[in-house]
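If you are new to this repository, start here. Below is one unmodified record pulled from the training split, so you can see the exact layout before writing a loader.
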Amino acid sequence: MNRRDFPKIHFYDQDFVDIYDKSWSWLNDYWINPATEEKDPEGYFIYPQGNSLIIEQFESIFSSFFLVYSNRNYPANQNIDYFYARQEENGAIRWKYDIRTNKPVTDEQNPEGIGMPLFAWAEFNLYHKSANKRRIREIMPVLQKYMDWIIGAFKKENGLFSVPAVAGGMFNSPRGGVFYPVDFNAAMAINAAYMSALGDILNDKDLSFQYKRMYFSLKTRINSMMWDNVTLFYHDLDSEEHRLPQKTIAGFWPLLAEMPNADKANALISHLNDPKTFGTSHPFPSLSADSPDFKESGEGFCGSVFPPLNFMIIKGLEKYQRYDMARECAIRHLYYILEALLPNDQKEKGDVFEAYLPCKEGKAVLTGHPDFPRARYMPYVGLSTIALMIENIIGLSISLPRKTVDWIIPNLEIMGIEKLSLKRNLITILSNKSLRGWEIQMESEKLYYFTINILDQKKKTLPIPSGKCSMLIDKL
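And here is the target side for that same chain:
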């Protein structure tokens, strides 16, 4: 596949551009046709593990957030549609399937195979990158049935959901005694909020109101029962509704759900800058650094840094307009990924990994598990090297149905994107310094609305006509 088919980025640090370009070429190795078990860009996005071909709900949902930028070289919805096609009569969709047999994969820890319910979040993002309203109409009955199954099977009388802690993917996190996991309950609220938003897209007021009510009900319960005024953090609950002591990265999911008010949000976000809790040199550890179970070597979810959880936190920071902090954390995170790809120690083979050390450069470890972390685990790494690169480091936010491109630039640098395909509309946006000063050059085949926000000092929305044009920053 020709790399020029993908959007090209410009950035002052060439290493960032290189890892972005490499990511697109690496992805080619992980598209597998289950019938032939050969590489096939029309197949499913799977990381082969030994002799097994397992398709996972968590990574399929998250990988859609960077596959939307592939200029349709890779179908961003392919894996998600696989899960929809496996929906059972009662509405159940399981967290993993063996793609050879199409049978669900469950275990003793998670007998029902419940996964993180985030399909509506992914669909909302797909809609804004494709403007495919018909898809929303077609998949809505599947999403409603799925939500009904979760409510019927896992909702308790207090309004919270009780599922195994491993449903969130944090397999060895020290969350002993958890009965009401904070990440799953926040994810249900996130899904409800986006179900309501999808209802608005369909102009279905009843649907929108039903899920909006569910969101606010969960928001009230999580804020009153899971927030701790001493630790200034969201905690898991035991079966008696007592807050458990551990501060895990799961406590940041309410940020993405827009649950904390301004004061709680400030307190929660302050943990991300505190080296004693989650402000380690490589943001963000999966367990608070002041926990007795925290390990600088990572040890799975006892401190390792995982790209999808960093993505979740950075998107949560955006919800509270902390764009500078989101960008700074994305850049630091990407530098540590680069350090592991290009290590100074020649004995260590460089690559991109599933998980990283929290306090220095390098991949995490898990004693007794030499296969952890998985190398070149692109379903996770692409979130950092592609999605965060475009959305937070370069700073672009795109919505096709609204015909809008927002560009948040914290400081003036040579950067931008070239030949990004927006539904048969190739756009280019670049900032450069010319003899006339800082200039933004644009090229598009169709009209769209461009909002630029520089240093929070200059903000302007302009209609950008088809063809080439440019604007001088000093003239804004």
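Two things worth knowing about this chain: The longest helix spans residues 133-154. The chain has a mean pLDDT of 94.
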